[in-house]
Amino acid sequence: MHGQKTNAARLLDAAGISYTLVPYVVDEEHLEASHVAQQLGEDLDRVFKTLVLRGDKNGLFVCVVPGSMEVDLKVAARISGNKNCAMIHVKELLPLTGYIRGGCSPIGMKKPFPTFIHESALLWDTIYVSAGIRGLQICIEPQTLIDFVGAGLYPL
Q1: Which candidate, 33, 76, 38, 30, places its Cα nearest to that of 57?
Q2: Which residues does 85 contact at the CB level (< 8 Å), separation at least 6?
Q3: Among 120, 122, 121, 118, which residue's Cα sits nearest to residue 154?
Q4: Is the pTM for the entire model greater than 0.70?
Q5: How far apart (Å, rounded) are the C-alpha atoms in residues 125 and 143?
Q6: Domains along the chain?
């Protein structure tokens, strides 16, 4: 068991939500989801990455997609009510969300942003998302995560 509880884990605890914290070995040179999946011995499509985007109309929003996938900016713009959107610059991540690259969780950002979770998450009994720090993942039922963060679905 990892020694420290993250803000995301504390929020899940406070809500009485069941999850598991799963540590992995961090490689600062390889922060991609593929490295995390390899460390966990899990399918890359079961390890989800949390991406923060900025829309031209509605501001910041979050897409949580499988590790094997790149976010489709046209789809992301459409589902978030924007005409266009782009990934935020990595330098903006910490001040806006409280998280760093490779440790960005969809749970417990500084402010609640509209969140969209890829519907393939529902194909799994549990999925992995960052616990809010590098080296720690949260294993959680996808519908539980969707309900907890009030997420919409990102279409297949």
Answers
A1: 76
A2: 53, 54, 55, 56, 61, 73, 76, 77
A3: 118
A4: yes
A5: 9
A6: 7-154 (3.90.960.10)
